[in-house]
Amino acid sequence: MTQEPSRPRPPLRIGSKxxxxxxxxxxxxxxxxxxxxxxxxVIAGFIWGSNRHPVATVTARAxxxxxxxxxxxxxxxxxxxx
Length: 82
Prior knowledge:
Blueprint: H1 14-52, H2 54-70
Helix pairs in contact: 1-2
């Protein structure tokens, strides 16, 4: 009896790959909607706060800009050690 050369087998679970892809797309969409909602709430809070206490709102806005601009971690030291 001679054996046939083995051929590569086609993927058996193409449906599971498609389901995984669709699931990842749905989760990304949910995260995008959540991020936009949080941004809208923050902007609405700044608008509301500027009417109630402008100085505190400007201070909070400066803190938010510095946090977003520089991040939470300290900047990396340069190679020269300066």
